[in-house]
Amino acid sequence: MEQYFFSFGRDDSYISKSPEGLAYRNPPRTLLRLFTSEGVSNVEWASIGPDEDSWVLSCMKEKENTRIYFGDGCPSALKAYLFDEESRTVRRGSDVRVVFGPKSSFFAWDRNSMRWSNIPESLEETIQAWLSPAGWKVGPPRMVALGADGAWFMLSEYGAASWEIPDEFESLAETWDEWEDEDFGWTELSFVAFDPTRPDQFVAIRSDKTWQGAIDDSNSEALEAFASSFFKKRSPPGRPSAQKRPSHSNLDQSWNPANTPTPAAQAHYETWSTHCATLFAAAAAARATPKSPSRRGPRSAVSPANISTSSNPPRPSLMTSFPHLPPSLVTCRLPSCIPTKSAASGLGACKHDVEALFRGSGLYSYEWLRQERLRWHPDRFGRLCAESFKEEGKRKAEEMWKICEELMVLEKKSAESGR
Protein backbone atom coordinates (compact mmCIF):
# COMPACT_ATOMS: atom_id res chain seq x y z
CA MET A 1 0.00 0.00 0.00
CA GLU A 2 1.31 3.43 -0.94
CA GLN A 3 2.55 5.51 2.01
CA TYR A 4 1.81 9.24 1.97
CA PHE A 5 3.42 11.61 4.45
CA PHE A 6 4.16 15.21 5.39
CA SER A 7 7.22 15.90 7.52
CA PHE A 8 8.01 19.29 9.09
CA GLY A 9 11.65 20.37 9.35
CA ARG A 10 13.80 23.25 10.56
CA ASP A 11 13.47 26.79 9.16
CA ASP A 12 10.05 26.03 7.62
CA SER A 13 11.40 23.19 5.49
CA TYR A 14 9.23 20.20 4.68
CA ILE A 15 9.04 17.10 2.54
CA SER A 16 5.79 15.40 1.54
CA LYS A 17 4.44 12.69 -0.67
CA SER A 18 0.85 12.47 -1.86
CA PRO A 19 -0.90 10.97 -4.91
CA GLU A 20 0.31 14.10 -6.73
CA GLY A 21 3.91 13.06 -6.15
CA LEU A 22 6.87 14.20 -4.05
CA ALA A 23 7.16 17.85 -2.96
CA TYR A 24 9.65 19.60 -0.71
CA ARG A 25 11.13 22.88 0.39
CA ASN A 26 14.70 23.37 1.62
CA PRO A 27 15.34 19.78 2.77
CA PRO A 28 18.82 18.88 4.11
CA ARG A 29 21.34 19.00 1.27
CA THR A 30 22.49 15.42 1.75
CA LEU A 31 18.90 14.21 1.54
CA LEU A 32 18.20 16.35 -1.51
CA ARG A 33 21.20 14.89 -3.34
CA LEU A 34 20.03 11.39 -2.54
CA PHE A 35 16.40 11.49 -3.57
CA THR A 36 17.12 13.48 -6.71
CA SER A 37 19.85 11.10 -7.80
CA GLU A 38 19.27 9.12 -10.96
CA GLY A 39 19.39 5.81 -9.11
CA VAL A 40 16.37 6.48 -6.89
CA SER A 41 13.25 5.09 -8.56
CA ASN A 42 10.75 5.54 -5.73
CA VAL A 43 10.70 7.40 -2.41
CA GLU A 44 8.56 5.33 -0.05
CA TRP A 45 8.69 7.64 2.97
CA ALA A 46 10.93 10.20 4.60
CA SER A 47 11.20 12.06 7.89
CA ILE A 48 13.23 15.20 8.59
CA GLY A 49 14.13 16.50 12.03
CA PRO A 50 14.87 19.82 13.70
CA ASP A 51 18.63 19.27 13.88
CA GLU A 52 21.00 19.86 11.00
CA ASP A 53 21.31 16.84 8.70
CA SER A 54 18.80 14.81 10.73
CA TRP A 55 16.67 12.75 8.36
CA VAL A 56 15.70 9.19 7.45
CA LEU A 57 14.70 8.04 3.96
CA SER A 58 13.18 4.78 2.75
CA CYS A 59 13.49 4.38 -1.01
CA MET A 60 14.06 1.96 -3.83
CA LYS A 61 17.01 2.09 -6.17
CA GLU A 62 17.21 0.51 -9.56
CA LYS A 63 17.65 -3.28 -9.36
CA GLU A 64 17.57 -3.14 -5.55
CA ASN A 65 15.03 -3.71 -2.81
CA THR A 66 13.99 -1.03 -0.34
CA ARG A 67 16.94 0.73 1.29
CA ILE A 68 17.07 2.85 4.46
CA TYR A 69 19.33 5.90 4.51
CA PHE A 70 19.86 8.44 7.27
CA GLY A 71 21.74 11.68 7.88
CA ASP A 72 24.81 12.18 10.06
CA GLY A 73 22.82 14.56 12.27
CA CYS A 74 20.52 11.79 13.56
CA PRO A 75 20.79 10.96 17.28
CA SER A 76 23.33 8.22 17.96
CA ALA A 77 20.67 5.96 19.50
CA LEU A 78 18.64 6.16 16.29
CA LYS A 79 21.68 5.38 14.16
CA ALA A 80 22.36 2.30 16.30
CA TYR A 81 18.75 1.17 15.89
CA LEU A 82 18.90 1.54 12.11
CA PHE A 83 22.45 0.43 11.34
CA ASP A 84 24.87 -2.22 12.63
CA GLU A 85 28.34 -0.66 12.64
CA GLU A 86 30.15 -3.99 13.05
CA SER A 87 28.61 -5.74 10.09
CA ARG A 88 28.04 -2.48 8.19
CA THR A 89 24.47 -3.53 7.40
CA VAL A 90 21.08 -1.92 7.84
CA ARG A 91 19.14 -3.51 10.69
CA ARG A 92 15.62 -2.45 9.62
CA GLY A 93 13.39 -3.18 6.66
CA SER A 94 10.79 -1.22 4.74
CA ASP A 95 8.27 -1.39 7.61
CA VAL A 96 10.33 0.83 9.93
CA ARG A 97 9.01 4.31 10.75
CA VAL A 98 10.79 7.24 12.39
CA VAL A 99 9.38 10.43 13.91
CA PHE A 100 11.64 13.26 15.07
CA GLY A 101 10.90 15.55 18.01
CA PRO A 102 12.60 18.55 19.60
CA LYS A 103 15.87 18.36 21.56
CA SER A 104 17.18 15.35 19.62
CA SER A 105 14.18 13.23 20.59
CA PHE A 106 12.79 10.53 18.31
CA PHE A 107 10.48 7.53 18.22
CA ALA A 108 11.23 4.67 15.83
CA TRP A 109 9.42 1.37 15.40
CA ASP A 110 8.70 -1.57 13.11
CA ARG A 111 6.62 -4.74 13.41
CA ASN A 112 8.84 -6.32 16.05
CA SER A 113 10.72 -3.56 17.85
CA MET A 114 10.86 0.08 18.84
CA ARG A 115 13.36 2.60 20.16
CA TRP A 116 12.97 6.09 21.54
CA SER A 117 15.01 8.80 23.20
CA ASN A 118 14.22 12.03 25.09
CA ILE A 119 10.46 11.72 24.51
CA PRO A 120 8.04 13.37 26.98
CA GLU A 121 7.65 11.46 30.25
CA SER A 122 3.89 11.19 29.77
CA LEU A 123 4.39 9.47 26.41
CA GLU A 124 6.85 7.02 27.91
CA GLU A 125 4.35 6.24 30.68
CA THR A 126 1.65 5.62 28.06
CA ILE A 127 3.90 3.20 26.20
CA GLN A 128 4.58 1.29 29.41
CA ALA A 129 0.84 1.20 30.19
CA TRP A 130 0.12 -0.23 26.76
CA LEU A 131 2.67 -3.03 27.26
CA SER A 132 2.34 -6.23 29.27
CA PRO A 133 4.69 -9.20 29.79
CA ALA A 134 2.77 -10.98 27.05
CA GLY A 135 3.08 -8.11 24.58
CA TRP A 136 0.91 -5.18 23.56
CA LYS A 137 -2.40 -4.78 25.37
CA VAL A 138 -3.84 -2.48 22.70
CA GLY A 139 -1.63 -3.33 19.75
CA PRO A 140 1.66 -1.78 18.61
CA PRO A 141 1.88 1.88 17.57
CA ARG A 142 0.18 2.76 14.32
CA MET A 143 0.86 6.52 14.34
CA VAL A 144 3.12 8.69 16.50
CA ALA A 145 3.57 12.47 16.34
CA LEU A 146 6.07 14.54 18.32
CA GLY A 147 5.68 18.31 18.47
CA ALA A 148 7.31 21.33 20.05
CA ASP A 149 6.95 22.05 23.78
CA GLY A 150 6.16 18.45 24.73
CA ALA A 151 3.16 17.92 22.44
CA TRP A 152 2.59 14.33 21.32
CA PHE A 153 -0.01 11.92 19.96
CA MET A 154 -0.02 8.14 19.66
CA LEU A 155 -2.56 5.76 18.11
CA SER A 156 -2.35 1.98 18.43
CA GLU A 157 -3.24 -0.59 15.81
CA TYR A 158 -6.32 -1.56 17.86
CA GLY A 159 -7.59 2.01 18.06
CA ALA A 160 -6.37 3.20 21.46
CA ALA A 161 -5.38 6.86 21.32
CA SER A 162 -3.56 9.06 23.79
CA TRP A 163 -2.06 12.54 23.59
CA GLU A 164 -0.82 15.58 25.43
CA ILE A 165 -1.39 19.02 23.92
CA PRO A 166 -0.21 22.20 25.68
CA ASP A 167 -2.88 24.84 26.32
CA GLU A 168 -1.13 27.35 24.08
CA PHE A 169 -1.62 25.05 21.08
CA GLU A 170 -4.98 26.66 20.33
CA SER A 171 -5.62 25.36 16.81
CA LEU A 172 -4.58 21.80 17.60
CA ALA A 173 -6.39 21.68 20.95
CA GLU A 174 -9.61 23.03 19.48
CA THR A 175 -9.47 20.59 16.58
CA TRP A 176 -9.03 17.65 18.96
CA ASP A 177 -11.83 18.94 21.23
CA GLU A 178 -14.15 19.43 18.25
CA TRP A 179 -13.51 15.92 16.96
CA GLU A 180 -13.99 14.47 20.43
CA ASP A 181 -17.33 16.28 20.72
CA GLU A 182 -18.39 14.56 17.49
CA ASP A 183 -17.59 11.16 19.04
CA PHE A 184 -14.97 10.73 16.33
CA GLY A 185 -13.39 7.27 16.38
CA TRP A 186 -9.62 7.63 16.27
CA THR A 187 -9.33 4.48 14.19
CA GLU A 188 -10.66 6.70 11.37
CA LEU A 189 -7.57 8.93 11.54
CA SER A 190 -5.62 8.46 8.31
CA PHE A 191 -2.60 10.67 8.97
CA VAL A 192 -1.16 13.01 11.58
CA ALA A 193 2.09 14.95 11.91
CA PHE A 194 3.27 17.65 14.32
CA ASP A 195 5.99 20.24 13.74
CA PRO A 196 8.85 19.62 16.22
CA THR A 197 10.24 23.15 15.74
CA ARG A 198 7.19 25.43 16.07
CA PRO A 199 4.25 25.30 18.48
CA ASP A 200 0.78 24.57 17.13
CA GLN A 201 1.80 23.56 13.61
CA PHE A 202 0.32 20.27 12.48
CA VAL A 203 -1.75 18.39 9.93
CA ALA A 204 -4.40 15.75 10.68
CA ILE A 205 -6.51 13.92 8.09
CA ARG A 206 -9.54 11.72 8.72
CA SER A 207 -10.77 8.88 6.54
CA ASP A 208 -13.93 10.86 5.72
CA LYS A 209 -11.60 13.43 4.03
CA THR A 210 -12.06 15.98 6.81
CA TRP A 211 -8.76 17.60 7.68
CA GLN A 212 -7.27 20.40 9.72
CA GLY A 213 -3.82 21.94 9.78
CA ALA A 214 -1.77 24.95 10.77
CA ILE A 215 1.49 26.02 9.18
CA ASP A 216 3.57 29.08 8.31
CA ASP A 217 1.97 31.16 5.56
CA SER A 218 4.87 30.41 3.22
CA ASN A 219 3.90 26.72 3.18
CA SER A 220 0.10 26.96 3.43
CA GLU A 221 -0.49 26.03 -0.21
CA ALA A 222 1.83 23.03 0.10
CA LEU A 223 -0.07 21.76 3.13
CA GLU A 224 -3.42 22.26 1.39
CA ALA A 225 -2.17 20.44 -1.70
CA PHE A 226 -1.06 17.48 0.41
CA ALA A 227 -4.24 17.22 2.46
CA SER A 228 -6.72 17.83 -0.35
CA SER A 229 -5.06 15.24 -2.62
CA PHE A 230 -4.44 12.61 0.07
CA PHE A 231 -7.26 10.33 -1.13
CA LYS A 232 -6.95 10.93 -4.86
CA LYS A 233 -5.80 8.27 -7.24
CA ARG A 234 -2.08 8.32 -7.75
CA SER A 235 -0.76 10.43 -10.61
CA PRO A 236 1.57 8.87 -13.21
CA PRO A 237 5.13 8.65 -11.87
CA GLY A 238 7.43 11.55 -12.58
CA ARG A 239 10.38 13.42 -11.19
CA PRO A 240 9.90 15.15 -7.81
CA SER A 241 9.27 18.89 -7.85
CA ALA A 242 10.17 21.58 -5.36
CA GLN A 243 7.30 23.46 -3.68
CA LYS A 244 4.37 22.65 -5.94
CA ARG A 245 1.91 25.54 -6.22
CA PRO A 246 -1.57 24.12 -6.78
CA SER A 247 -4.81 26.06 -6.64
CA HIS A 248 -6.57 26.28 -3.28
CA SER A 249 -8.85 23.33 -2.53
CA ASN A 250 -9.45 22.97 1.18
CA LEU A 251 -12.36 20.56 0.84
CA ASP A 252 -12.85 17.59 -1.45
CA GLN A 253 -15.89 18.88 -3.33
CA SER A 254 -17.63 17.60 -6.42
CA TRP A 255 -19.07 20.27 -8.67
CA ASN A 256 -22.63 21.16 -7.87
CA PRO A 257 -24.65 23.88 -9.66
CA ALA A 258 -26.17 24.89 -6.30
CA ASN A 259 -22.66 25.71 -5.07
CA THR A 260 -21.91 28.02 -8.00
CA PRO A 261 -22.43 31.61 -6.78
CA THR A 262 -23.29 34.60 -8.90
CA PRO A 263 -20.36 36.96 -9.59
CA ALA A 264 -21.88 39.53 -7.20
CA ALA A 265 -22.29 36.99 -4.38
CA GLN A 266 -18.78 35.73 -4.92
CA ALA A 267 -17.37 39.26 -4.83
CA HIS A 268 -19.19 40.00 -1.56
CA TYR A 269 -17.89 36.80 0.03
CA GLU A 270 -14.31 37.29 -1.14
CA THR A 271 -14.23 40.86 0.20
CA TRP A 272 -15.58 39.76 3.57
CA SER A 273 -13.35 36.68 3.65
CA THR A 274 -10.21 38.71 2.98
CA HIS A 275 -11.19 41.18 5.69
CA CYS A 276 -11.68 38.31 8.16
CA ALA A 277 -8.36 36.73 7.21
CA THR A 278 -6.54 40.01 7.79
CA LEU A 279 -8.14 40.54 11.21
CA PHE A 280 -7.48 36.97 12.34
CA ALA A 281 -3.88 36.96 11.12
CA ALA A 282 -3.11 40.31 12.78
CA ALA A 283 -4.66 39.16 16.07
CA ALA A 284 -2.83 35.82 15.98
CA ALA A 285 0.46 37.61 15.34
CA ALA A 286 -0.23 39.97 18.26
CA ARG A 287 -0.78 37.01 20.59
CA ALA A 288 2.37 35.20 19.49
CA THR A 289 5.41 35.45 21.73
CA PRO A 290 8.18 33.97 19.54
CA LYS A 291 11.57 33.12 20.98
CA SER A 292 13.20 34.01 17.68
CA PRO A 293 11.31 36.86 15.95
CA SER A 294 13.57 36.82 12.91
CA ARG A 295 12.52 33.26 12.05
CA ARG A 296 8.91 33.13 13.07
CA GLY A 297 6.34 34.30 10.55
CA PRO A 298 2.56 34.36 10.81
CA ARG A 299 0.85 30.97 11.01
CA SER A 300 -2.28 29.99 9.14
CA ALA A 301 -4.88 27.73 10.70
CA VAL A 302 -6.21 26.38 7.44
CA SER A 303 -9.98 26.87 7.18
CA PRO A 304 -12.39 28.01 4.47
CA ALA A 305 -12.17 31.77 5.02
CA ASN A 306 -8.73 32.04 6.56
CA ILE A 307 -6.53 32.31 3.48
CA SER A 308 -4.92 35.68 2.95
CA THR A 309 -3.84 36.52 -0.57
CA SER A 310 -1.71 39.45 0.50
CA SER A 311 2.03 39.02 0.24
CA ASN A 312 2.54 41.51 3.10
CA PRO A 313 1.60 40.14 6.54
CA PRO A 314 -0.69 42.43 8.54
CA ARG A 315 0.68 44.44 11.45
CA PRO A 316 0.09 42.55 14.74
CA SER A 317 -3.03 43.92 16.40
CA LEU A 318 -5.74 42.38 18.59
CA MET A 319 -9.29 42.84 17.36
CA THR A 320 -11.20 45.95 18.36
CA SER A 321 -14.12 45.49 15.97
CA PHE A 322 -16.18 42.62 14.57
CA PRO A 323 -16.17 41.61 10.87
CA HIS A 324 -19.86 42.22 10.29
CA LEU A 325 -21.63 41.08 7.15
CA PRO A 326 -21.71 43.54 4.23
CA PRO A 327 -24.83 45.77 4.60
CA SER A 328 -25.91 44.88 1.06
CA LEU A 329 -26.36 41.24 2.17
CA VAL A 330 -28.37 41.97 5.31
CA THR A 331 -31.63 41.80 3.38
CA CYS A 332 -33.84 39.27 5.19
CA ARG A 333 -37.16 40.85 6.22
CA LEU A 334 -38.91 37.86 7.78
CA PRO A 335 -40.90 39.00 10.83
CA SER A 336 -39.29 36.27 12.95
CA CYS A 337 -35.80 37.59 12.19
CA ILE A 338 -36.35 41.35 12.65
CA PRO A 339 -36.19 41.41 16.50
CA THR A 340 -32.84 39.62 16.54
CA LYS A 341 -31.37 41.77 13.78
CA SER A 342 -32.57 44.97 15.44
CA ALA A 343 -30.74 44.36 18.73
CA ALA A 344 -28.31 47.25 19.19
CA SER A 345 -25.51 45.10 20.56
CA GLY A 346 -26.09 42.06 18.35
CA LEU A 347 -24.70 40.70 15.12
CA GLY A 348 -27.23 42.62 13.03
CA ALA A 349 -27.81 39.61 10.75
CA CYS A 350 -29.86 36.43 10.82
CA LYS A 351 -29.14 32.92 9.62
CA HIS A 352 -30.65 33.71 6.20
CA ASP A 353 -28.24 36.61 5.71
CA VAL A 354 -25.27 34.52 6.83
CA GLU A 355 -26.30 31.65 4.56
CA ALA A 356 -26.49 34.03 1.58
CA LEU A 357 -22.97 35.26 2.38
CA PHE A 358 -21.51 31.78 2.85
CA ARG A 359 -22.98 30.48 -0.38
CA GLY A 360 -20.87 33.05 -2.17
CA SER A 361 -17.85 30.89 -1.32
CA GLY A 362 -18.96 28.26 -3.84
CA LEU A 363 -18.01 25.56 -1.31
CA TYR A 364 -21.12 25.56 0.86
CA SER A 365 -21.68 22.16 2.48
CA TYR A 366 -22.04 20.53 5.89
CA GLU A 367 -18.30 19.93 6.17
CA TRP A 368 -17.46 23.45 5.02
CA LEU A 369 -19.81 24.88 7.67
CA ARG A 370 -18.30 22.64 10.33
CA GLN A 371 -14.85 23.98 9.65
CA GLU A 372 -16.09 27.57 9.35
CA ARG A 373 -17.79 27.28 12.74
CA LEU A 374 -14.48 26.52 14.44
CA ARG A 375 -13.28 30.10 13.92
CA TRP A 376 -16.26 31.58 15.73
CA HIS A 377 -16.03 29.67 18.99
CA PRO A 378 -16.52 32.49 21.53
CA ASP A 379 -13.61 31.47 23.76
CA ARG A 380 -11.25 31.15 20.82
CA PHE A 381 -12.44 34.42 19.30
CA GLY A 382 -12.19 36.17 22.66
CA ARG A 383 -8.51 35.36 22.92
CA LEU A 384 -7.96 37.36 19.73
CA CYS A 385 -9.75 40.46 21.06
CA ALA A 386 -8.38 43.49 22.86
CA GLU A 387 -9.53 43.63 26.47
CA SER A 388 -11.87 46.56 25.82
CA PHE A 389 -13.62 44.63 23.02
CA LYS A 390 -13.48 41.10 24.42
CA GLU A 391 -16.99 40.94 25.91
CA GLU A 392 -18.66 42.34 22.79
CA GLY A 393 -16.49 40.24 20.49
CA LYS A 394 -17.29 37.00 22.31
CA ARG A 395 -21.02 37.78 22.29
CA LYS A 396 -21.10 38.38 18.53
CA ALA A 397 -18.85 35.40 17.82
CA GLU A 398 -21.24 33.23 19.81
CA GLU A 399 -24.09 34.41 17.56
CA MET A 400 -22.07 33.37 14.50
CA TRP A 401 -21.24 30.04 16.16
CA LYS A 402 -24.91 29.31 16.81
CA ILE A 403 -25.92 30.36 13.28
CA CYS A 404 -23.30 28.01 11.84
CA GLU A 405 -24.75 25.20 13.97
CA GLU A 406 -28.26 25.94 12.70
CA LEU A 407 -27.06 25.96 9.10
CA MET A 408 -25.23 22.66 9.65
CA VAL A 409 -28.45 21.05 10.90
CA LEU A 410 -30.37 22.36 7.90
CA GLU A 411 -27.69 21.25 5.46
CA LYS A 412 -27.57 17.77 6.98
CA LYS A 413 -31.34 17.41 6.72
CA SER A 414 -31.19 18.64 3.14
CA ALA A 415 -28.54 16.07 2.26
CA GLU A 416 -30.49 13.26 3.94
CA SER A 417 -33.65 14.16 2.04
CA GLY A 418 -31.73 14.00 -1.22
CA ARG A 419 -32.63 17.52 -2.30
Automatic annotation (TrEMBL):
Compositional bias ranges of the Low complexity kind: 256-265
Region (Disordered): 231-267, 287-316
Name this protein carries in UniProt: Uncharacterized protein
Species annotation: Glonium stellatum
Biased composition (Polar residues): 303-312
